[in-house]
Write a structure and sequence with these properties.
homodimer, alpha/beta, Nucleotidyltransferase, domain 5, 6-stranded mixed sheet, 34% helix
Chain lengths: 317, 317
């Protein structure tokens, strides 16, 4: 990421998701001065109560600083949030994202900027969508042609090049993992055990990454969590890590089939869902060089989008 | 299936699974005289109480007929059931299954025969297993080289030839469907609605069967249940049938990759989980000719295994 021109005033970036509210107060040069993190996700906020909730949660900073520029990203910009900000289609630049933002002046004089999510009309059968991750992708940097992965409940794989997000695809790996270990035949076998078996995770990667004839048969490979127990090869405490490795390796196989990477290439891994190290392990198993994104990618991205507001826009064909 | 020699006496076949108990009283020629079906699955039976439970549930027939030959199949033969019957390895004949059975004489003079499940040591990373379905496969018939599918929570794909079950593979499609529609982002979207949208099911088949670059990317394709809603292309009431079609089509793609069928071949579909018509629709989409198994395949199979008890055995290499 090239240096971002300092923004004129102290400002706030809020990642306001379904289950949490995470705000940072930034100096003009982007340094983090303070944080406020609460469980006030948008699912707990009445439709008409977003402004009041925001002013209440940020009241310590507003009392000290007066009116502030507040950037909002995440599900707060969705149909179920405060104001629905329409998706900006790929390929798109930071300037396009700035152009798609919606501004509101609040009762205390603060300015709120709701950043848009993006969609990818090239994806079949329906356009894929993200809302929040695009800001982290911008924060990672768009200068070099690259594939960037954002691990999570619904992980996102994106291609960037020439200052644009070219396209992306969602994989529901994290959610499927949770469903399997909490609610399935695997849950009954694994019980509540199993945190931290690196050997079981590695075995899951190897079995999920197989280039054998059944490498694409995920619906069948998953059953190995049971047959491995029956064969005495997997202990109850191994199951969760084994399934984690198996599913993430399957995600990489499937992403490779979709053209996201080839042997020996570089891959960026960005995010803060606690999965980055697992994804980096799997990436290296697939012969990839890992470039770790900054933990402040969302902040960097929000600032870059603000800075681009007056810059050139890209008009999708 | 060639005619099975009449067995000498009236006899009983019980499919005793995790959640249900289903018994039929048969004439020597195999005709069903009566049925008893209850919710006394093995998970509700204390380890030492299987004999007493069986005698209680069958007491009307035992009172009328005296001692009976009783064939038990299903999870009652597993570690969590009455007596654990070791798996018989593939390839295997009905005679091998008879040879692996365990007999017990009960207090009332009845004879109980617990039939074994089978495993497939050729499956990697661990041997695959089934317990109960092998009896239905035998009932379908082993004379002709064929692929047989048994739809279910954990559907089974088997190859048969030369009077043997050659090998098989489990796909957890039914369970994954239930997890997605009951517990995931799809559940929230679909709500309690959605039974019977043939058009949505057909659309799911088409999208799940795609030969496009992303046809193997199941972790991503599943997200279409959300993006289709966002795009206005899928109504809430369509979601369940759409996901059903998508997942079963993915199962067929994956089974094809594993070598279970090629274009224009025949496929047998056996079972009574209410999914056979759905599987037949998908099979035809993949250019297969469907041979529907008898609804009495389990009974036919149990009788064939009993009849083979004195027949030639196959010794696995």
């Amino acid at each position: 990421m090239p240096p971002i021109a300092d923004l004129p005033e102290a400002h706030v970036v809020v990642d306001w998701g379904t289950t949490s509210f995470r705000a940072v107060l930034l100096s003009p040069d982007g340094a983090i001065r303070e944080r406020i993190e609460t469980g006030d996700g948008i699912q707990f906020v009445d439709k008409g109560a977003f402004e009041a909730t925001l002013l209440r949660l940020l009241s310590p900073w507003l009392a000290a600083e007066g009116a502030l520029d507040i950037v909002l990203v995440g599900m707060v910009t969705s149909r179920n949030g405060w104001i629905e900000v329409p998706y900006v289609p790929c390929p798109c630049t930071p300037g396009d994202l700035a152009g798609g933002a919606i501004r509101r002046r609040l009762s205390n004089g603060s300015s709120v900027i709701l950043l848009p999510g993006i969609n990818d009309p090239a994806r079949k059968p329906f356009p894929d969508v993200m809302r929040g991750e695009e800001t982290q992708i911008v924060g990672f940097g768009l200068e070099n042609t690259a594939t960037i992965v954002l691990p999570g409940t619904h992980s996102k794989w994106a291609r960037v090049a020439d200052g644009r997000i070219s396209g992306f695809r969602t994989f529901v790996t994290g959610e499927l993992y949770a469903l399997l270990v909490l609610h399935s035949f695997i849950a009954r076998a694994a019980g509540a055990q199993g945190d931290g078996s690196p050997a079981a995770f590695a075995r899951g990667i190897a079995d999920g990454a197989t280039d054998a004839v059944d490498g694409d048969a995920m619906l069948s490979l998953v059953f190995a969590a049971r047959t491995g127990m029956l064969a005495g090869a997997l202990a109850a405490g191994d199951i969760r890590d084994y399934v984690s490795g198996l599913l993430i390796a399957q995600e990489f196989r499937q992403a490779r089939a979709c053209g996201f990477f080839g042997e020996g290439e570089r891959i960026g891994i960005v995010g803060n869902d606690g999965l980055n190290r697992r994804y980096a392990d799997v990436a290296r198993h697939f012969g990839l060089e890992v470039v770790a994104g900054s933990e402040h990618a969302a902040i960097d991205g929000a600032r870059a989008i603000l800075a681009a507001e007056k810059g050139p826009r890209h008009d999708a064909a």
